[in-house]
């Protein structure tokens, strides 16, 4: 079902003797309020995305109705819409709190987070809430403000500003830009934003682990609530929830400040020199140029002279054998390397089984690009033996490292492989790809490397 995004509230529940669930099915629409955030809902080049969006879209599909998304003007508006019973579900990364449980009806918890104090790395790390030296700002009426109110009993000097206008993500940006000194963020929010706002740091946790869940209006009709419970029970048992969380968070579990900082510098200085080559290769192969560029960065840091100990060379690190098959005459020529690498990746993509769907298809093709198609197939066979799904990256990436263990590679056709390498390879590229998309959407200005960096050696 296609989601309809509405920014002005124009939905009102109808008076009927039918249950709420029956009304929704009769009307043919599920009305969900969410918020714009990497953890909930956002629009990227491929359309709507975000964990909450994927969950509610799946739920609407289960009900056989279309999905209508409402985007509130503020967090206060979001809470009001639930309280006033003008929406069916709030899927907005809401923390279950005692105060909210008195007002809303929460569905099953689907994710665990911790609330954290965030500061800028250029400042001294605070050691406690009672010793904050600077401005602390949080979203008004958020779980973060609820937490601070409770903590103030033990921290009499604790003060903060409650902002009624902006979201948590914007406060993180303000800390990054040194407009404010501190904010509170959920751990999952920081995880997705820290790749872009690389100078953010966690001072300390201010809460024990907390649960996120959908919130529904507190009414006498529990028909929709019971259906939500059934839905989450199903996706927890069949592994779909785990797969969705992995798809959104699995590649960002570890944050490398130095590596990300270098990458951002290379985006600014190196990428402009080669961007046209990536875009031209994208047009030929019908693959997002930013994905090809992310692969090129993982391979060589966009260094056209890169040479590995095993003899692979150039921006896309092609072997001599692969270069000959692709008719690449000079692997150290950036344009030839990028064109050849993109073609080789597209061949890997086209070679994937039809049963492998996106985005798993892309991640598998990347793994094959790195470790070889044959070893990927061996890993998929091991995945089957482990009674997992060989068409899902989340399962195959657990089997790939087993190719380095004699117990397992002796059972395969193509034997030993450093199977942990393609896993790291794919996860790194996924992070680089996300950052490249963010940079482009943020319109960050980049300048090319000096001309000297472009000298092309004659040797391949």
TrEMBL record:
InterPro entries: Lysozyme-like_dom_sf (IPR023346), MltF (IPR023703), Solute-binding_3/MltF_N (IPR001638), Transglyc_AS (IPR000189), Transglycosylase_SLT_dom_1 (IPR008258). Pfam families: SBP_bac_3, SLT. Keywords: Cell outer membrane, Cell wall biogenesis/degradation, Lyase, Membrane, Signal. One of its GO terms (cellular component) is cell outer membrane. GO terms for biological process: cell wall organization; peptidoglycan catabolic process. PROSITE patterns: TRANSGLYCOSYLASE (PS00922). SMART domains: PBPb. GO terms for molecular function: peptidoglycan lytic transglycosylase activity. CDD domains: MLTF-like, PBP2_YfhD_N. It is found in: Cell outer membrane. Residues 29-252 form the Solute-binding protein family 3/N-terminal domain. It is a peripheral membrane protein. The keyword ATP-binding does not apply. NCBIfam families: PRK10859.1. PANTHER family: MEMBRANE-BOUND LYTIC MUREIN TRANSGLYCOSYLASE F (PTHR35936:SF32). This is Membrane-bound lytic murein transglycosylase F. It comes from hydrothermal vent metagenome.
């Amino acid at each position: 079902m296609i989601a309809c995004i509405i920014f002005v509230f124009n939905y009102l529940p109808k008076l009927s003797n039918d249950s709420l669930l029956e009304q929704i099915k009769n009307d043919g629409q599920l009305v969900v309020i969410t918020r714009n955030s990497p953890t909930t809902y956002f629009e990227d080049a491929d359309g709507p995305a975000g964990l909450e969006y994927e969950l509610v879209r799946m739920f609407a599909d289960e009900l056989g109705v279309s999905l209508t998304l409402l985007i509130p003007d503020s967090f206060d508006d979001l809470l009001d819409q639930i309280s006033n019973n003008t929406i069916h579900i709030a899927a907005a990364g809401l923390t279950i709190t005692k105060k909210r449980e008195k007002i809303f009806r929460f569905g099953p918890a689907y994710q665990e987070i911790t609330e954290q104090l965030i500061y800028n790395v250029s400042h001294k790390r605070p050691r406690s809430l009672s010793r904050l030296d600077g401005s602390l700002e949080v979203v008004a009426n958020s779980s973060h403000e609820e937490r601070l109110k409770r903590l103030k009993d033990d921290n009499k000097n604790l003060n903060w500003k409650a902002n009624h206008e902006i979201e948590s993500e914007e406060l993180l940006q303000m800390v990054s830009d040194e407009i404010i000194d501190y904010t509170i963020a959920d751990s999952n929010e920081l995880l997705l934003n820290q790749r872009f706002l690389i100078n953010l740091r966690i001072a300390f946790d201010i809460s024990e682990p907390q649960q996120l869940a959908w919130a529904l209006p507190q009414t006498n009709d529990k028909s929709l609530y019971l259906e939500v419970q059934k839905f989450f029970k199903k996706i927890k048992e069949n592994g779909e929830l785990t797969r969705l969380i992995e798809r959104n968070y699995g590649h960002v579990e570890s944050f490398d400040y130095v590596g990300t900082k270098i990458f951002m510098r290379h985006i600014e200085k190196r990428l402009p020199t080669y961007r046209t080559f990536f875009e031209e290769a994208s047009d030929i192969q019908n693959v997002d140029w930013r994905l090809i560029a992310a692969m090129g960065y993982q391979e060589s840091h966009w260094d056209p002279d890169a040479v590995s100990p095993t003899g692979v060379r150039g921006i896309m690190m092609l072997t001599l054998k692969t270069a000959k098959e692709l008719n690449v005459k000079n692997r150290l020529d950036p344009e030839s390397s990028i064109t050849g690498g993109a073609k080789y990746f597209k061949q890997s993509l086209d070679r994937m089984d039809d049963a492998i769907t996106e985005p798993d298809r892309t991640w598998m093709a990347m793994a094959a690009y790195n470790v070889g198609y044959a070893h990927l197939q061996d890993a998929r066979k091991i995945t089957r033996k482990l009674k997992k799904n060989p068409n899902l990256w989340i399962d195959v990436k657990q089997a790939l490292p087993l190719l380095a263990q004699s117990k397992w590679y002796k059972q395969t056709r193509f034997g030993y492989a450093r199977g942990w390498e393609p896993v790291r390879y794919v996860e790194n590229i996924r992070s680089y790809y996300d950052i490249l998309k963010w940079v482009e959407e943020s319109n960050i200005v980049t300048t090319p490397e000096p001309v000297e960096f472009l000298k092309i050696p004659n040797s391949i």
